[in-house]
Amino acid sequence: MSASTLEVELRGDVGGLTVDLALSAEAGPTVIVGPNGAGKTSLLMMILGALAPTGGRVAVDGMVVFDRARGLDLPVEQRGIGFLPQRDTLFPHLDVLENVAYGIAEVPRAERDRRALAALRELGAEALAARRTDGLSGGEAQRVALARALAPAPRALLLDEPLAALDVGLRREVRSFLAAHLRRLAIPTLVVTHDRADAEAFDAEIVVMERGAIAQRGRLADLAARPATDFVREFLDRG
Amino acid sequence: MAWSLAWSLLLGALSGFLLLLILLPIAGLLFTASPRDLLRGLADPMVGPAVRLTLGTTLGSLALVIGCGTPLAWVLVHRRGRGWRIIETVVQLPVVLPPAVAGVALLLAFGRRGLLGPALGALGIGLPFTRAAVILAETFVAAPFYLQAAIAAFRRLAPELVLVARTLGASPPRVFFTVALPISKSALAGGAAMSWARALGEFGATLMFAGNLSGRTQTLPLAIYTALESDLRTAQSLSIVLVAVAFALLVAMRVGTRT
Fold it and tell me: How far is residue A49 from each of residues A11, A29, A73, B44, B166, measured CA to CA in Å?
């Protein structure tokens, strides 16, 4: 388990913003915060392989998935990195079980369903298995989406503002559920958020991104003791 | 009070006029002949071949439109750059081209003295005035209707869904077949129905590029045109067949896009 880290060193230009940072995340959640346009989502897209960096290297669990110097650039589907976007997450034409089974490839149907059901059970969502996705609440949909992302056993997991599309009441419920489950995961997990309450709930290291670079990183208490930028001060004052 | 009455009258008069303009010719088609007249019209020897040819060629063009149009729409939606936007506009051109212009254009592309004429001639292929020419003409005028629907459907597809599918290990072809197509299927079916309806009614381009040869290139609309010169009832019977098919397509499309 010692190799379970996410090593990221990336340079890239996205819509006028230059991203240039190095980041290493151990197993468990790491929270990424930053103002709008800081490059948080671009960073996730580059790690996933959906956006092309101009330089750098990404290694997951000891396996290099991108290395500009060596001309190595694995396509998204071969990187083994799970992803949870903020909305439009579930396939509307598949039921819950089929959604979760989608990423479990190359095994017989019965085995696929068994594993998908196990992934749902893990997140306390087994009862939803036969449901259509359009009848799920926002919280249920995020549980199913997380089960689906975890079902193929990814080497790392990226969550892009997983609570942003939920209303306030639901947000609290899903936040505590996510925090409880992400802490138990043995894989590096990056959670982008703009909510201080998320950072607190995940009780994780916080990486502050501004203008495409890392402005500060540390636990919430470290940030509070020595806020490095105006944004950090503002972020700590929120909520 | 007087205002609201005048307003109602104005609305009624204007909508009524247009409604009449649309319904009256259809009523004329349906109700000016007895069923016996119509049956006799349908017994005309040119009806059978025209119906068979129309079904065969329009299904052929529909297969071309769906088989090549779906990938083209997918490519157009996912390529950036001005060149691709220009292509997207150009493929819509046949919708607004007069059919006669389409016929000339097809002749100048595939005719003996057209752009591909010498090359086709060297291979011993002569397209004009063949069944293949009918299919080409129908495809040329009908494809944009399907393309438009397919492009709109693929644009509506959330990019997050495509990305999530790929993070779950799906290759781009698997994403296309297991996510994009199933989610867009009712919109694609609607586009296909519109495109088929347009191919069924295709007249001008076919006449100029494929001619009006009974049993070979004479489709239903061309047979109607020919029948009109000798027997109005045959023309009327054939027209009713086309109206019935078009109406069925319209209903199927409405039902299809609702579910």
Answer: 13, 20, 8, 65, 10
The whole domain housing A17 covers 6-89+155-237
Domains of chain B: 53-216 (1.10.3720.10)
pTM: 0.87
Would A179 be classed as within a structural domain?
yes
In a domain, A65, yes or no: yes
Distance CA B210, CA A231 (A): 71
The minimal CB distance from A89 to the residues B160, B166, B183 is found for B160
List of chain A residues whose C-beta atoms are within 8 Å of the C-beta of residue B163: 48, 50, 76, 83, 85
A150 found inside a domain: no
- Report pLDDT digits (tens) over B85-129: 999 999 999 999 998 899 999 999 999 889 998 899 899 888 888
Smallest CA–CA distance, residue A229 to chain B, in Å, is 32
Residue A18 inside a domain? The answer is: yes
- What is the CATH classification number for the domain harbouring A23? 3.40.50.300
Residue A218: helix, strand or coil by DSSP?
strand
Q: How many domains does chain A have?
A: 1
Q: Look up the ipTM and state it.
A: 0.93
User: CA angle, corner A100, sides to A96 and A102, nearest 5?
Assistant: 115
Q: Which residues of B touch A76 (CB under 8 A)?
A: 163, 166-167
The predicted-structure confidence for A103-135, as pLDDT tens digits, reads as follows 998 889 999 999 999 999 988 899 999 999 999
The candidate with the shortest Cα–Cα distance to A30, out of A218, A164, A167, is A218
CB-closest option in B169, B182, B183 to A152 = B169
CA of A1, closest CA in chain B: separation in Å?
A: 22
